[in-house]
Design a protein that fits this description.
alpha+beta, six-stranded mixed sheet, three-stranded antiparallel sheet, Putative restriction endonuclease domain-containing protein, Nuclease_put_TT1808
């Protein structure tokens, strides 16, 4: 999804929730400012759907919650809220909230030209403040290429790069999948 700052006076979190309920589109909320989330490409949408479907099927009967791009994440210990393309939480504290989750173990962002730098930089800096987060997946929508940021046992983030023929291992939810499962049938604009 593509974010664009709205021309709205700074809001409190409570005012943001009330204001957003009246809007036709979703908005992320960062440091009192709101950012409209416009739609992405066909590939972007199909990739996000593939991940949520795979996660939901894999996690059936586990008590974990699979989120799509309509589920907000509260950035831990802040009043900031984002809409990732897909997420998973297995934390019991998230089972009692209705407007957002706070403790995802896995977040997926499908990249676009306008958001890639933010998804890799500022957004990841916010997300990784959360000790529950174990895997952060950045997914190209133009070529068969996925980067996985994984928190190791000592709390350091390592990056794993996946390409055609690779198997992605998401330790946070104990799932391995062929990268081709995500990209099957898509019209890609760049060579893999």
């Amino acid at each position: 999804m593509i974010a664009a700052q709205e021309n709205v006076s700074p809001l409190t979190p409570e005012a943001y929730f009330a204001w957003e309920e009246q809007q036709l589109e979703k908005h992320e909320y960062i440091d009192g400012q709101v950012y409209a989330m416009s739609g992405g490409s066909v590939n972007h949408g199909r990739i996000a759907i593939r991940f949520t479907a795979l996660f939901d099927s894999h996690l059936e009967n586990t008590g974990c919650i699979t989120g799509n791009s309509d589920i907000k994440i509260n950035i831990l210990e802040t009043s900031n809220y984002t809409y990732p393309d897909a997420s998973v939480t297995c934390d019991d504290r998230d089972k009692t909230t209705i407007q957002y989750i706070t403790y995802p173990c896995l977040i997926v962002e499908v990249l676009s030209d306008s958001t890639e730098a933010y998804d890799r930089g500022g957004k990841f800096r916010m997300y990784r403040q959360n000790p529950a987060l174990r895997d952060y997946l950045l997914v190209s929508s133009t070529k068969i290429e996925i980067d996985l940021y994984r928190k190791n046992d000592s709390g350091e983030w390592i990056i794993l790069n996946y390409k055609a023929g690779d198997t992605i291992e998401l330790r946070s939810i104990d799932l391995s999948l062929a990268i081709e499962q995500i990209y099957r049938g898509l019209a890609l604009t760049s060579a893999a």
